[in-house]
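Recap from last week: sequence in, structure out.
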Amino acid sequence: MITTPSGDTSRLLATVDFVKQQDTAALLPLLFPGLDGPELRTLVEHCRFSHAALLVFPSDEAELRAMLGDCGLDAALPPRPSVVVRERLAVRHRRPAAELDVGILRPAVAGVDGAHRTVEVFALTVPPGSGLDEIAAHERKQAHETHVAFDVASPNPLVLRGLCATFARYGATPDGGGYNPHENGTVFYFGAPAEAKVGCRRVELYVPGDHRDVLAAHLAEHRARQPAETLLRLLTGAWTTQALAVFAQLRVPDAMDGERGVGVEELAREVGAEPRNLATLLRYVAMLGAVTEGRDGFRLTETGALLRDGAPGSMRALALMYGGPFYESFGGLGHTVRTGQVAFEHLFGENHFDHFARDPELAELFDRSMAAGAAMFDPVPTHPVLTAAAGAPAGATVVDVAGGNGELLGRILAAHPGLNGVLLERAHAVEAARLRLEQAGLGARCAFVTGDFADVPTGGDVYVLSRVLHDWDDERCREILRHCARAMPEHADLLVVERVLPSDGSVSLATAWDLHMMCNVGGRERRAGHYGRLFADAGLTLVGRSPLPLDGHVLHVRKAGAAFTG
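Predicted structure tokens:
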């Protein structure tokens, strides 16, 4: 197939001939010997042979144009950037991705069966004297980027997972992939089975749209087969935190555009940075998916836009907090593990609540960082307890205990005009919450109480403890819950919003936050059964549990012995 005579033009001609001669039903059994019957029919139904690909090495655009012409191919020039192949070459040859000008072209080819296919031509420009000749020689010999590809006809997660599982059963191994924002497509690469009867190294599934959720599991399996690379990537996690924090701190996202590219020099002038160093930072955050790099400069992605100040769902404050005080305290994680003492207190000489309360700017940043995880709250206002309270003829009151800046209570009141609210918090947080709810037009329906957990207001219908208990050890949690239980009437409900540790050891954000809470506040995440015991010690009963985004949960709690009709 693609490994015939030397010379890029000869290799390209061989690829064109292969694409013309093959079809989906005939090619799949050649790639996956033993594949037949129902599984073959299923694969033929859900994917189709679309192209074969190879990497060529023209010295410039004119040479690439001539090569295509010699092979009877017509393609619009210049090529579009190829993010995935560029990154693979950068890793394989330990070269900065910015030095590798890799483009992609897809000239059309008609198959003998009448099907419309393409030859995917990756072009790494190798100008004379560029020092890239060794890369070109190695890639021609090894043909790492030589592959055959199938388009997925029905791009939904179930179909994608099924196709990946079938490939694996017949000997294919995950071999990377990525999302290309320039064409809004997701690529899944597989190593071809050793028994394949087609001379290609890899198989590709191409799926229109953004499917990075399914891709994440595919890439994780790929990395698991390369333990040294996996460990190295894990060890550089601190670099990622700081890169994103500095990206936000310099307000680079605010100076960028999601629709057009912006040059480094222009960005550097706007944010007050050294252009060369800013370019290095941008290339790194491009690898993280916060920006993309094209011929017209750098462009902000949807992920990067979350680091804009004031953007809907902005997580800028969270980046500054995790890259600031909490980053510093994590340097003392070993002290916490050895001694049981809280690293934050060891570093700053006081607990983080007192430390932030004494610094108004830091306190405001912390409150905004807490609100940055507000996606967890999205389904909370529709919880049956709140819906039922909102429908009560006499109205109902929601008491948000330690409600921060009022983010969650504001959502609840906005969703249910029949509800009133009470927010209990420290003095500075009460003022922030008052301002937030008044600006939202909800201030008239909410009372504000300055105080501590001992001051939980009585007489509410629904009480809310959102991300509070994980700040404290078990004894303090029991004390907080007892204050709530004493304030609650017999009919009242308590909704506890927390991340719950999985009981089966599955991957969860709760496990990461368990480490964070231990290091920074002396608290912890807990399993549902652990929470159940804490509730029981305070005279309460766990009666229900429902999932939330970001691995959160709502725990529905009532007084022990109280009637429950849910």
